């Protein structure tokens, strides 16, 4: 009897998304910031989409259904936002300094996913890092490390 009841509930829940994210879930803010950085240069490439999925899946140990739900929630939040402040305010409260620095590094990973870095992407990350309280020095360190991870080697320290 218990087995049949459990099977029934599993079949009912099968058609629903496995992960439902609360509107204030910090993972939505991270996904939305990633999406905003992806769109900063006006062109979203497949390599950036793949990198976004890889980062979110690895960072939060999500299965494909939960990953799709997170990205959809991030897209909804991002489309409603007028600036970065909405997302960075809550993340600054919830993340420690090292985690905020790592987030900036993840944003740089998305920028370098397509092998290019634009002035608009630089500006977007500069603004996000500033709002998160990440220093210019640390932002540059994170950028250099992301470039190395992307196989682009050493890059200039100008910005």
UniProtKB/TrEMBL annotation:
InterPro entries: DjlA_N, TerB-like. Pfam families: TerB. It comes from Agrobacterium albertimagni AOL15. This is Co-chaperone DjlA N-terminal domain-containing protein. Residues 27-143 form the Co-chaperone DjlA N-terminal domain. Gene3D superfamilies: TerB-like.
């Amino acid at each position: 009897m218990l087995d049949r009841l459990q099977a029934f509930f599993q079949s009912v829940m099968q058609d629903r998304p496995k992960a439902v994210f609360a509107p204030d879930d910090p993972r939505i803010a991270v996904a939305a910031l990633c999406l905003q950085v992806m769109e900063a240069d006006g062109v979203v490439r497949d390599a950036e989409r793949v990198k976004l999925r890889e980062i979110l899946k690895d960072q939060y140990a999500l299965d494909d259904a939960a990953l799709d739900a997170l990205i959809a929630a991030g897209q909804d939040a991002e489309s409603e936002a007028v600036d970065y402040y909405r997302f960075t305010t809550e993340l600054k409260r919830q993340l420690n300094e090292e985690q905020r620095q790592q987030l900036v590094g993840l944003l740089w990973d998305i920028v370098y996913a397509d092998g290019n870095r634009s002035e608009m992407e630089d500006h977007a990350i500069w603004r996000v890092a500033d709002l998160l309280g990440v220093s210019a020095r640390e932002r540059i360190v994170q950028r250099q490390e992301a470039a190395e991870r992307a196989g682009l080697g050493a890059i200039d320290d100008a910005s």
